[in-house]
Amino acid sequence: DTGGYEHYLLKEINEQPETVARTLRGRIDDRFHIAHLGGLNLTPHETRAFRRVKIIGCGSAYYSGQIGAQLIEELARIPADAEPASEFRYRNPVVEHDTLYVAISQSGETYDTLAAVQELKRKGGRVLGIVNTVGSAIARECDGGIYLHAGPEVSVASTKAFTSTAVAFALLALHFGRVHDLSPADGRRICEGLRRLPEQIREILGREEEIAALARKYADRPSMMFVGRVRGYPVAREGAQKLKEVSYVHAEAYPASELKHGPLALIGPDMPTVAVVPDDELLDKNLTTLGEIRARGGQVLMVGHRMAEAKLADDCIVVPKNEVELDPILLTIPLQLFAYHAAVALGRDVDKPRNLAKSVTVE
Ligand code: BG6
């Protein structure tokens, strides 16, 4: 039941204020500014012993893992990176005793991710699962983890599971950070930022008509570029992924810093760019990139925080500002709506895109 919405995808996008609140429920401790994550099965001693975090998942789960890796590095200062589970399992990975492995899966049944977890377990790796579906195969294989509590996700393109996974990583990074050197003041800043998310998501959803108009404006282009730097980069990747999945428009995501090392050759009137521009220490660098794109005749749709900079782009979606570490979660939401409305404008099968399955349980 789509609950009055035209598609499950739109329903699930609109559920995000509640689903993010459910991922957070009962997990924030305002006394010590820590996260309560009852299912990790890690002692403080074990938590301190990990020297590295390796995150694996497929598709959107992998991109949310990239946000997760950045959160863990920023808040806990533990080296962390994300890799597609499908690649990881085929490259005979070196499994280290002081690395914590984290597997992400909405369904908990993705075969590539499950096979990677089984390989890790066979080699003695310690694996946490960030999973939506309780009791699923991946959840059962892991040593512990975090359930998203986002409710069933029906549309093939992942939306609410993506944001809830990023929120779960913020909690995990807060937890690791406060076991290491994250100050109580910074812990409090993150706790308060997390609590603001549902209301801010609601605010973005309230701007659906404005975003839909932009989607209709750009939907007839054969191709779109998505760029972002550091915190904006996984957002750009997910934005491109959503657009190609549901609208079949070719979309490429690049780190904004890499544009001039190749893809700038593609920029021109036929290739508009969606630029993810958070108000962080890289703002000026990102604004320079916008100028470089426009100087080559490329149109820019900027998704960011500062209205004053809107004149540097052809179009602009301004989202509410949270803490810099949490901003990627909010910046993702308009790109979901953009992809949805592009797909509707093009008459696509929004909830069941051609050639895709919700959960790929085969090799
Ligand atoms: C893909 C789906 O095949 O699997 C994506 O089309 C999804 O939407 C990916 O992100 C991973 O799925 P899961 O269930 O492991 O998170």
From TrEMBL:
<dbReference type="GO" id="GO:0005829">
    <property type="term" value="C:cytosol"/>
</dbReference>
<keyword id="KW-0808">Transferase</keyword>
<dbReference type="GO" id="GO:0004360">
    <property type="term" value="F:glutamine-fructose-6-phosphate transaminase (isomerizing) activity"/>
</dbReference>
<keyword id="KW-0315">Glutamine amidotransferase</keyword>
<dbReference type="GO" id="GO:0005975">
    <property type="term" value="P:carbohydrate metabolic process"/>
</dbReference>
<protein>
    <recommendedName>
        <fullName>Glutamine--fructose-6-phosphate aminotransferase [isomerizing]</fullName>
        <ecNumber>2.6.1.16</ecNumber>
    </recommendedName>
</protein>
<dbReference type="GO" id="GO:0097367">
    <property type="term" value="F:carbohydrate derivative binding"/>
</dbReference>
<comment type="subunit">
    <text>Homodimer.</text>
</comment>
<comment type="function">
    <text>Catalyzes the first step in hexosamine metabolism, converting fructose-6P into glucosamine-6P using glutamine as a nitrogen source.</text>
</comment>
<dbReference type="GO" id="GO:0006047">
    <property type="term" value="P:UDP-N-acetylglucosamine metabolic process"/>
</dbReference>
<keyword id="KW-0677">Repeat</keyword>
<keyword id="KW-0963">Cytoplasm</keyword>
<dbReference type="GO" id="GO:0006002">
    <property type="term" value="P:fructose 6-phosphate metabolic process"/>
</dbReference>
<dbReference type="GO" id="GO:0006487">
    <property type="term" value="P:protein N-linked glycosylation"/>
</dbReference>
<feature type="domain" description="SIS">
    <location>
        <begin position="214"/>
        <end position="353"/>
    </location>
</feature>
<feature type="active site" description="For Fru-6P isomerization activity">
    <location>
        <position position="358"/>
    </location>
</feature>
<feature type="domain" description="SIS">
    <location>
        <begin position="42"/>
        <end position="182"/>
    </location>
</feature>
<keyword id="KW-0032">Aminotransferase</keyword>
